[in-house]
Amino acid sequence: MLLHLTDEQEFVRDTTSKFLGNEAPVSDVRKLRDNPDGFDRSYWRRGAELGWTSFLVRPNAGGGSVSGRGLIDLTLIAHEFGRNAAPGPLLPTNLVAAALGWSATESNAAESNATEILPGLLDGTEIATWCYEEHPGRRLADIELEVNVDGQEVVINGSKRPVEAAGQASHLLVTGRTGPGLTQVIVPAGAPGVTITPMDSVDLTRRFYMVKFANVRLPFKSVLGGPGEAGPQVERLVRHALVLQCAESVGAMERGFEMTVEWGFDRYSFGRPLASYQALKHRFADMKSWLEAGHAISDAAADAVESDSDDAAELASAAKAFVGHYGGEVLQDCVQIHGGIGVTFEHDLHLFLRRLTVNRMVYGTPAEHRQRLADLAFPEGAL
Amino acid sequence: MTVDGIEDVESFRRRARNWISTNLEPRSNRPQARLGIVQNEDDDLAAIARERDIQRQLFEAGLAGVCVSPEYGGQGLTRAHQQALNEELCGYEYPSRIQVPTFSPCASVLLEFGTDAQKRAHLPAILRGEELWMQLLSEPSGGSDVAAALTTAVRDGDEWVLNGSKIWTTGAWWSDWGLCLARTNWDVPKHRGLTVFILPLHQPGIEIHRIEMLNGDKEFCQEFLTDVRVPDSDRIGEVDEGWTVGVRWMFHERMLYNSPLVTRPPDSGQGGGVMRPVAQVARDSGLSEDRLVRDLVGEARMLEIVESRLLERISAGIRSGTMSDQSSAIGRLFHGVAAARTRTISCEVAGSAGAAWTNDDGEAAGAGIEFVMRQASCIGGGTTEMARNVISERVLGMPRERTPDRDTPFRDVPRSASAGSRRDN
Ligand SMILES: Cc1cc2nc3c(=O)[nH]c(=O)nc-3n(C[C@H](O)[C@H](O)[C@H](O)COP(=O)(O)OP(=O)(O)OC[C@H]3O[C@@H](n4cnc5c(N)ncnc54)[C@H](O)[C@@H]3O)c2cc1C
Hints:
The complex is a heterodimer of chains A (about 375) and B (about 425). By secondary structure, chain A is α+β, with helices and mostly antiparallel strands. Chain A is about 50% helix and about 15% strand. In chain A, α5 (about 90-105) runs antiparallel to α6 (about 110-120) and α7 runs parallel beside α9. Chain B contains twelve helices and ten strands. Chain B has helices spanning about 10-25, 40-60, 80-90, 95-115, 115-125, 240-255, 280-285, 290-320, 330-350, 365-370, 375-380, 385-395, and strands at about 1-5, 5, 135, 150-155, 160-165, 175-185, 195-200, 205-210, 220-230, 235.
């Protein structure tokens, strides 16, 4: 998280931190394991009042940020979500709100999409999610789902997985291919031909689904922007996803690390605290350096993506590659230093490890993002 | 154009760009592929002479000592100006060997602790490329425990007489001045009996021996000091208060990649060292299409990007007081480990061309030699173990290691298993 916040940003961060501490204490997160939605609707609506869903949307579309740089403000919320392993569809709802807001100015049709759907997302009464990734093991950008234009309609065929909160969403933003280009379509979750099947997952509060589209027909106005022209917007959305994910993962890393430092002081072995053993002190030092590096790179990525600067793609992938990998190293070492209790369900540590683990593998693994960095390092050609 | 009487960054940048493009040569990217032993002294000296020359020209063009006060020959500008100069130097030759340790930590220490006379005597000369400085910290008896220095300074009227030996001094044989930590009191605990001096390196009482390193460089030196006389006016800081200076000295050393005094184009390689751009190694070894190799290239690039952002964060945190000075050890640790990993990657990517090469192997040649020297990044400038001690004990507040020498007069501290516990002095 940023080292230096404005007073307003600090207020927003602090409000969310306190809200999460009261409304979704870490001790309660475990109970949500058996809740089919993974979060409580009224909790989400009250969170929305704190701005959780508004920062990426312009004020004239009903949104608004604290600093004028909405993505940066939203990373503060994501950071707190990570620190609390908090429930709620923060990432998917914000991504869809952002995409609707961006395209609202492009045409009347897009404007009407935005005016119909955005208010519910902004006030927290509705949830939306992004259907982007397809086959595990394929590269992030390999999209096969087809969106074909048929007169005044578009027809969607294909499947997406994993899709967070699809079972809770009223609307799905679907990325598909129209010829060589990408198309984004807004699909009501209940549209005929849409099947949403729950998947099992690592996180206790995040729900993931497989979503299938079989000849789903929608009016042409459901397309955001032009068919085949969504490539740049999709890339921008992916970068936003990476930035938010990393901010959240760093929050999870930070909390797990703090718990482990405290444990290092409290736990005694052979008559002295664990924190007095150099072998362990040195591992704490390594973890601290990775944690600070995680903060630094995810803030740098947020800044670049928010300003859409030339190095945005590179920084976003560097952040994901680093935080994904080293976040895992830090939290696993935290488990190790906890000993037996570290692998029990009763202890809180795993809540952060679960969050990190999911974030590590969705929207491209660290390996995938190292490939992206290599593609950028070899301007002569991506593989 | 000026703002509040200060040249604005953009016009400074343009001025720098124009000057650089007319006066400097493109940086040669010729790999220094050699068989690991052939090291031509004349070539080295010519390179140093060229760097001094560039430094003098930068000075005359008003581009040296960007953040140093005009009183001492600098430009009195800001970090942002230095950053602009660094960026404009991308792709061009620059006086790389003069930056560290001359500008930082040495000039940083002079600025912080030197008397006005000392600053006037040395800073303009440093900015003109006339004085290259070295740090005389480590000794044969130990480098991590810097405060256990055995080199002794004894007062004689207005002079001090120094005896002892310093070692691992990079580039002392072609340098002019040294910053030296010496023991002035053996009857107090180690931290309370040290004093810092400055001294010319080439003088009758100092014998400099060059030491060959694993890559064939003979930049390492050992100096033997025999009755070296130093005027008291060349003392830095108070008598027996050398540790106060030493702590800041080592701080500046850890922060050198972010020092506003150091000129370092961002494309000069990780940490300003000689790190080969791993992507180029992959191209030259013909493996840039290989997926495994691309994974490694991506990792190296990730480490490079993350390191530079981490150093910026720490430097900003320390400047604003949200992080303690001790946090500089976080950057030092990350740099050492990341550089070592990058050398391993480079080796992997170079394939057999890193083991045996011809002049046609480009950047891939020499990757093996760099791997052999890999740990240098984790040893020079204080080891990564020492950085881990500082982070855990000073940043995280964990219990200090047991140090039996802390409250013992230094004379009585055991100094090695073989030499017995006492030493005549
Ligand atoms: C490329 C390079 C350039 C250098 N340039 C200079 C220079 O210009 N001037 C200069 O003065 N010195 C220079 N040095 C020397 C360097 O600072 C020392 O080598 C370093 O501080 C370690 O000291 P040492 O070699 O005596 O090892 P030692 O201090 O003997 O340490 C040996 C090993 O024990 C570990 N160790 C020691 N104490 C502890 C502890 N308390 N806890 C855990 N582990 C410990 C160390 O980390 C190391 O791994 C340079 C070194 C290199 C490699």
